[in-house]
Amino acid sequence: MSDTARRLAAEAIGTGLLVATVVGSGIMAERLTGDSALALLANTLPAGAILIVLITVFGPVSGAHFNPAVSMVFALQGALPARMALAYAGAQIAGGLVGTLLAHAMFEAPFWLPSATIRSGPGQWIAEAVATAGLITTILGGLRARPEAVPVLVGLYITAAYWFTASTSFANPAVTIARTLTDSFSGIRPADAPGFIAAQLAGAVLAAALCRWLFKPQGAPT
Q1: Has residue 72 been placed in a domain?
Q2: What CA–CA distance (Å, rounded) separates 18 from 112?
Q3: Which of 68, 155, 194, 215 is such that its CA lies 20 to 30 A from the CA of 205?
Q4: How many CA atoms lie within 13 A of 190 on its CB side?
């Protein structure tokens, strides 16, 4: 298997497992409790935990992006060829869709069940821009300061962002698309996904520009 194939497989598998965790824990939370705050906590902790595991395991193979917004930022920085970034995004989206179907299969839910959960409006879009900008800043800042800590930093950031953002921090176009297919606690109505994705990409671009200035090596030209 070629290096490219291994990298794309890692991105697809990692994103699939991430989505299966988010959707599966959401379904489990709904079945175990009627308390929405407790259900959100039950959805939050597995998502943060699995990110630490997945980034640690797949990081050496593909960089463990699992997120088209992250791949886009690395392409803008010249750290990832544009063609590879597009291939990453395709693998991430495909993996995410399979992750939703896998979660449904495990819980014996209908495979294809578009969400009816409304997530729209300026507050939600601002929250997604903030969530994604924070994620990108966490990754780039972590890579600069303590690369070995990035898995934990990302896991902890997403755990926190679930609670301080109005949108519960999707912060990922591939995950957003995948979550349109689950009418469960973690779902998003398909009609609302484009607004989320636009906000995520905008937040990612703004964070990349900020980090380029903020983390400029001392003494380097502006």
Answers
A1: yes
A2: 18
A3: 155
A4: 5
The total number of residues shown for the chain amounts to: 222
Q: How many helices (H) and strands (E) does the chain have?
A: 8, 0
Is the Cβ–Cβ distance between 43 and 31 less than 8 Å?
Answer: no
In a domain, 159, yes or no: yes
Q: 37: which 2 tokens?
A: 């705050």
Domain presence at residue 219: no
The domain that holds 32 is classified in CATH as 1.20.1080.10
Q: How far apart are CA 92 and CA 112, in angstroms?
A: 19
Q: Which two tokens stand for residue 57?
A: 């395991």
Q: What is the pLDDT along the chain (222 residues), one digit of tens a residue?
A: 689 999 999 999 999 999 999 999 999 999 999 999 999 999 999 999 999 999 999 999 999 999 999 999 999 999 999 999 999 999 999 999 999 999 999 999 998 889 999 999 999 999 999 999 999 999 999 999 999 999 999 999 999 999 999 999 999 999 999 999 999 999 999 999 999 999 999 999 999 999 999 998 755 554
The tokens 């930093």 sit on which residue? Answer: 153
Q: How far is CA 146 from CA 22, 51, 57, 150, 152, in A?
A: 27, 17, 17, 7, 11
Q: If you search the block for the tokens 């392409």, which residue do you land on?
A: 75
